[in-house]
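Table S2 (continued). Query chain:
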Amino acid sequence: MAHSRGRRFNGVADHGSAKVKVALTAMLLAAGGLLLLAEARAQSNASNDATTEKNDQPQGKTKRVWDNDEIQKLKGGISVVGNPSSSRTGNPKPATTRPAAVLQTPIRRFKATTLDGEEITSESLQGKTVLVQFWATWCPHCRRDQAPVDSITRDFEDKGLAVLAVDVDEPKNTVIKYLKQYPRSCQIILAKDTDLTALYPQSGFPTYVLIDRNGHTVGTKKGELGEQGLRNFLGRAGIAE
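Corresponding output:
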C-alpha cells in the first residue's frame, strides 16, 4: 500500500513537473515574441521619423550667399568705394568719387545797411555767395587780411561773390577815418546797422562766415587766413579758381 501511494505521489509529482515545464516554455516564447514585436515597432518608428524629417526640409533650395552690397545694405553702411567684384555677375563695379561733405545750416535771413547807405538783405543777395568778415580797425590780424580780402573781392566778383565787412562796436567816425587812410574794395557795414552780429556771434577777430548761393551757411573761420587760406575757404561754397 505504501508503495502504491508512493507511485501515485511520484506520478502526481511527475505530472506536475511537466506542467511547470510547459508553462515556463510558453512564458519564454511569449517573452521572446514581445521582444521581437518591440524591436519591430522601434525600427518602424525610426523609419517614420527619418521620412518625416526629410519631407519637412525645403525641396530645391540652396544656401543663400550674400554679396558685399547686400551685407552693406543690411548693416546700413555706405557702399565700398573702389572696384569690388560682384559675386553675382563677376564683373567689376566702377569706382565712385564723392565730394567732401560740407555741413549746411538752415537759411538765416539778415538785413544790413552799408556805410554808403545801401540796403542789403539775404533776399537781395539770393543766388550769390556771401563772405562776411567781422573786423575792427584796431585789430592787427584784420589789417594783415585786408589786402587778401580786397583781392578776392575783385577776383571773384564776376563769379557772384559778395563780401561784407562788418566793423564791430566802433564809432562811425573812427571807421570813416580809417577808411580814408586805408580804403577797402568790399562793402563796409557797422555792427549797429545789421543783425549779422546777432546771427553769428564772434569770440575774436577776424571771424569769417561763408554763405552759399542757396542761403546755407557752409563754414566759419576765426583768425587770420591769408589770401590762399581765403581762396581755399571759398571752395566750400563751390567757388573755384
